[in-house]
């Protein structure tokens, strides 16, 4: 997988930055992070899109309050209109199938579907297009790395050792395909009791910070395991919308600010690289 980003990859017309939100394993809150980050970014004034790349377990329709909706498709061009809510344009295979339908597809079909959801959608002008990746390091990740000019990646983990081991693999994968990792988001960093507001480190403590130091990347945010975050996602009105003044929502807002600053820095670095004359 030592593939260089270059002439083989294409961007998306009108989209400035394409950022993968990934995790080494499932169940760490990657989609919840992607949704709240996208909304917080839109609240900052940016034009934002969110692509659900998890074909087997699409969760964006429910989390974004768009479950049961169907996107419009132009009969001639076959271009799909993204569904929008909370200032974020979204696309997911979940809009095309019933909630009970299981996607029993092999890798090449899945990869083709992802590219169609990315390229055949009228995203319009966007500052950021976040891709909610499936967990792990499989076909979809390789397809996107080879065919799409990814600007950067964010890797989500929990503090426990088994999640951190898989998070390390995720960072290594992006390194091999030459996609810069902006940093790590530690989700479920601590449990906040809804009654007494006391904090308990259910999944250990400090793991993501140690991994960030080891991998020489930043720890972007530490998101608590909080009942309100889960309830808001299940109700289709993420915490960044339902409780925008809460401590956790402010953490997502700070995460969005860090992503903006880091992407601006990456862009300046690319511009400042001198072009060698033959």
Write the layout of secondary structure elements.
Elements: E1 15-23, H1 30-43, E2 48-52, H2 60-63, E3 83-85, E4 88-92, H3 107-119, E5 126-132, H4 139-147, E6 152-157, H5 161-176, E7 181-186, E8 191-192, E9 199-200, H6 207-215, E10 218-222, H7 227-234, H8 239-242, H9 247-272
Description:
- The chain has one domain: Rossmann fold, CATH 3.40.50.300.
- The protein is 37% helix and 18% strand.
- The protein is built from nine helices and ten strands.
- It has an eight-stranded mixed beta sheet, sandwiched between helices. A two-stranded antiparallel sheet has the order 8-9.
- α5 links the parallel β6 and β7.
- α1 crosses α9, α3 packs across α4 and α5 packs parallel to α6.
CATH evolutionary superfamily = P-loop containing nucleotide triphosphate hydrolases
Number of self-contained structural domains: 1
How does the major sheet shape up? 8 strands, mixed
Number of helices: 9
CATH architecture: 3-Layer(aba) Sandwich
Q: Low-confidence runs (pLDDT<50, min 5 residues)?
A: 272-278
Mean pLDDT: 87
Kindly identify the CATH topology. Answer: Rossmann fold
Strand content: 15-25%
- Derived from helix and strand composition plus strand pairing, the structural class reads alpha/beta
Tell me the series of helices and strands, N- to C-terminal: EHEHEEHEHEHEEEHEHHH
* Percentage of residues in helical conformation: 25-40%
DSSP summary, beta strand count: 10
Query: If strands are numbered along the chain, what order do they take across the biggest sheet?
Result: 3-4-2-5-1-6-7-10
CATH class label? Alpha Beta
- The N- to C-terminal Cα distance equals 30 Å
What would the principal axes of the Cα set say about the shape?
globular
Radius of gyration: 18 Å
């Amino acid at each position: 997988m030592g593939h260089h980003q270059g002439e083989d990859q294409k961007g998306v017309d009108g989209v400035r930055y394409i950022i993968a939100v990934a995790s080494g394993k499932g169940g760490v809150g990657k989609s919840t992070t992607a949704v709240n980050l996208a909304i917080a970014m839109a609240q900052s004034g940016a034009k934002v899109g969110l692509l659900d790349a998890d074909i087997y377990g699409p969760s964006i329709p429910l989390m974004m309050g768009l479950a049961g909706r169907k996107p419009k498709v132009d009969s001639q061009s076959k271009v799909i209109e993204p569904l929008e809510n909370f200032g974020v344009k979204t696309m997911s295979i979940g809009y095309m199938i019933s909630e009970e339908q299981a996607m029993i597809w092999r890798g090449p079909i899945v990869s083709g579907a992802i590219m169609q959801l990315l390229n055949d959608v009228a995203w319009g002008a966007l500052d950021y297009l976040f891709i909610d990746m499936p967990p792990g390091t499989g076909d979809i990740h390789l397809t996107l790395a080879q065919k799409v000019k990814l600007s950067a990646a964010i890797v989500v983990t929990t503090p426990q050792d088994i999640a951190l081991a898989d998070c390390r693999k995720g960072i290594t994968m992006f390194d091999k395909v030459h996609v810069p990792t902006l940093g790590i988001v530690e989700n479920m960093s601590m449990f906040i009791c809804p009654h007494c507001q006391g904090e308990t480190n259910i999944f250990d403590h400090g793991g993501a910070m140690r991994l960030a130091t080891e991998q020489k990347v930043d720890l972007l945010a530490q998101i608590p395991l909080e009942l309100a975050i889960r309830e808001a996602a299940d109700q289709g009105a993420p915490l960044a919308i339902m409780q925008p003044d809460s401590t956790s929502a402010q953490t997502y807002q700070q995460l969005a600010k860090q992503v903006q600053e880091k992407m601006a820095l990456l862009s300046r670095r690319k511009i400042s690289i001198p072009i060698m004359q033959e």
